[in-house]
Design brief:
MgtE N-terminal fold; three-stranded mixed β-sheet; 22 helices; CBS-domain; homodimer; Tetracycline Repressor, domain 2
């Protein structure tokens, strides 16, 4: 099956040159997700042409695919108002909200006008929620029934409204007097229940699992995954259902989080569009900020080096190992940071566990440092004895300096790297902002100080 | 709701000191996922005690939670054989396979023996698949019907077997003559269809989307997410259904992939257990490998520095900016690498797109390098004029050297960082293995050469 996906774009391009009837027929046999994936890589003009050739129902389904998200806007601007209005109206409410978040301010008013009154109002409502919260990814098309219905009534109702709802696998049972959520029952529980039973008495008798509209989408994902739900209701303070977040929205959210985390850990702001879609200028903007901040902090290394200028002039051989020694601290720090970021995200660790991690990272760092220290020591002694390079008569002291400095720097790197995400979280930032370059920079300056302090202790009276 | 989770462990600990009847009653009201999460942080003895107090059905559900994965083994060894056998038998087949992958070789035989013959055979079958493939995460409890049934028959069948299957939201229609998969129909499609229709004619008439047992779990996740499926069937070469992968397995797989990717990008082997559960020795093993490999490569910087020893001795002031200049290349490289890794994982980029990325990263890197270059240049000139540090009479040439070297190094860093994941993929590795420390190391050596080459060009005849 996956093969279909790889060729979807070229297939669509080929089809565009066939006669319209053939194009229509070939398209009708493709899956909406495949068409959407194919359209993604087409020029907007060609994509709009394909859309125009699709039967309306299929066009609506294709248009609803999150894969098309960054292209919908351009396509809409190439359609006449009635067609655009119909297409938008047929979208699910969460995708509508995503779409309008992307439409430039000027066009937004025009496109809102082509929508029917009711759709416009609920859309305006949805747009009030931040895009990374439950409110921002929820849909308002869910199936609800009053608490006094039987299983039989519920099943009949579901078979009637089934086509129009985002999911019918979770049914929300409301108190008929005040519309408050009293129970969630799954279609599975209904299907296996006695037909004349009261729907509210079916399944486990427990208060429903809910989230509020400002719950972070990552937390929503955690809850859906933990309780194996197909959807979770978003409720207000009085248990009125505002909408639901379905499991496929959560998967999309997880994939986006993964991408954002990776980009942040790489030391930049998260992009809000695919790599090839982002303009040159916004790419620079997203990257230059952190790069400059890191550069300015790293300037402290130059300041530190200036203080050690005397030592370097006396023993230029010391300078040779600076990059090696410093980078090892950054590398071990980067390992520790990535470990702790994920453990915090998965709730394996809590903020108050910081000292348990510190107590683990210190011996780990010392051991790793000792391993590298031995390799570093051996390297210098070996090069000297094999006459590859002449480090001078004090080569043994130099080797000891490098070895000991490595122990200290790697231990400090592990410790600092593991504590940084805790510090970020404590001061209210996303722990994932503790990037590998950030840790490296942090460790570099201290690493220099450690290196020259060890050198001073060991080489005083000989080289220094 | 989430509050429950945070206190589950302490609640369980408290309950353990109540009388058994009260413990039983309180536990019966908790959700399986919450009990599992609470048990996760309890000592194994206490956890086994809680398990013993649970009614069997609930105990089985708790035991089936993936959250308990790393603790099940220890609990089982504290139970008598009949209880252990019953619990294992009640688990879903994918969790059974996960469990037996964790059980030490010696105990495995004993625990296999307590299982009923049929369960043992299918388990042995499942254990043959690699844990990161569709076969490794699939379950064998799915609902299938013959192709000649009506919707009415199908619905009646589902209401009878509903409780025992992993999911009944996707129903697999098999050719009655040879058991081959002909169509997948969703419960939703069945529920809204005419009761006397043929089940096989319900829904979109397209060949089913399938995966094979060796499809990577990340690819399975991509397919489930792309086509918005609740489950995907795993088939052999002849379209016989071996099992299904459900959407909640995929979420767990996505979360694991995220963790693995983060750890790899941090420059280490992926851990196979939570941070606090892993032993000191395996932590060292997982981290020392890459750390040593990086250290050995980074030794090339020492070799490079040895070649430039003359320059450093003549102009120790040059050495001061080595850490600053080098780290900037690593930082921009780390940005580019994280961008490309994700774009490759999301299929936004394909292997053959490498030159398009190169053509984008080169101007991006040059621009970013120019920004840092101006800052670096200004820093040196400013320090000199404010009399913070005296770089000597040739400070302007030094400032130009640092500025130009930054342009070259940041551009090289961006280019190398963006190409590394392509290279990894091309030679058959996971592009995600292109870690931030890896890129930094790669760029460090070249960065030194660029720096000293620029210095030689500009400072020849003055400082050098």
């Amino acid at each position: 099956m996956p093969q279909i996906a790889h060729t979807a774009t070229s297939e669509l391009l080929y089809l565009l040159h066939q006669d319209p009837a053939e194009l229509r027929e070939a398209l009708a046999e493709m899956r909406p997700a495949d068409i959407a994936e194919g359209l993604r890589d087409l020029p907007t003009d060609a994509a709009a042409k394909v859309m125009a050739a699709l039967p309306f129902d299929l066009a609506a389904e294709v248009f609803d695919e999150p894969e098309l998200a960054h292209h919908r806007c351009g396509m809409l601007l190439r359609m006449d108002d009635p067609t655009a209005g119909q297409l938008i109206d047929a979208m699910s409410s969460d995708q509508q909200a995503d779409l309008f978040r992307e439409i430039p301010e000027g066009e937004r008013k025009r496109l809102l006008k082509v929508l029917p009154e009711s759709a416009r109002e609920s859309l305006k409502q949805l747009l009030k929620y931040a895009p990374e919260t439950a409110g921002g990814i929820m849909t308002t098309e869910f199936a609800s029934i009053p608490a006094n219905w039987t299983v039989e009534q519920a099943l009949r109702f579901i078979s009637e409204v089934g086509r129009a709802k985002e999911t019918i696998y979770a049914i929300y049972i409301l108190d008929p007097s005040n519309e408050k959520l009293v129970r969630v029952v799954s279609l599975r529980e209904l299907v296996v229940a006695r037909r004349d039973a009261n729907a509210v008495e079916v399944g486990r008798q427990q208060p429903p699992i809910t989230v509020s509209s400002d719950t972070d989408r990552e937390e929503v994902a955690r809850i859906i995954s933990k309780y194996n739900l197909l959807a979770v209701p978003v409720v207000d303070d009085e248990m009125h259902v505002l909408g639901i977040v379905t499991v496929d929205d959560v998967i999309d959210a997880l994939v986006s989080e993964h991408t954002e985390d990776a980009q942040k850990f790489g030391g930049m702001e998260a992009l809000d569009a695919p790599y090839m879609d982002i303009s040159f200028l916004s790419m620079i903007r997203k990257r230059a900020g952190w790069l400059c901040a890191l550069f300015l902090s790293e300037m402290l290394t130059a300041t530190a080096m200036q203080r050690f200028q005397g030592e370097i002039e006396k023993a230029a051989v010391l300078a040779m190992f600076i990059p090696l020694v410093m980078s090892s601290g950054g590398n071990s720090g980067s390992q520790a940071t990535s470990l702790v970021i994920r453990a915090l995200a998965l709730r394996e660790l809590k903020l108050r566990d910081w000292w348990r991690i510190a107590l683990r990272e210190l011996p780990t760092g010392l051991t790793l440092g000792a391993i590298l220290g031995v390799i570093g020591f051996t390297r210098i002694v070996l090069w000297q004895h094999l006459h590859i390079f002449n480090y001078g008569i004090h080569y043994l002291l130099l080797a000891i300096t490098v070895g000991l400095a490595l122990v200290g720097i790697v231990a400090f790197g592990s410790l600092a790297g593991s504590m940084l995400p805790f510090v970020m979280k404590r001061v209210g930032f996303d722990p994932a902002s503790a990037s590998a370059p950030f840790v490296a920079t942090l460790v570099d300056v201290t690493g220099l100080v450690i290196y020259f302090s060890v050198a001073f202790l060991i080489l005083r009276g000989t080289l220094l």
